[in-house]
């Protein structure tokens, strides 16, 4: 992810989690350094807080800034690289 977005790279040696995405034209997963759980919430995404290709927007969730990814756009970026 750090190759496409301005986010920190994952530290080596930590436990890692992989999120396997469904409904994509080829197998696709996102490697994560932490997993904070699954939430059912009403989404009110702010689209101007963190503007980058591959990001839908952000919102505060459990007092932390949460970035919502545009998976389709990131998939296209990965195909082109």
Automatic annotation (TrEMBL):
Domain CheW-like: from-to ranges: 3-77
Pfam families attached to this UniProt entry: CheW
InterPro entries: CheW-like_dom_sf, CheW-lke_dom
Listed GO biological process terms: chemotaxis; signal transduction
Name of this chain's protein: CheW-like domain-containing protein
Organism: Candidatus Magnetoglobus multicellularis str. Araruama
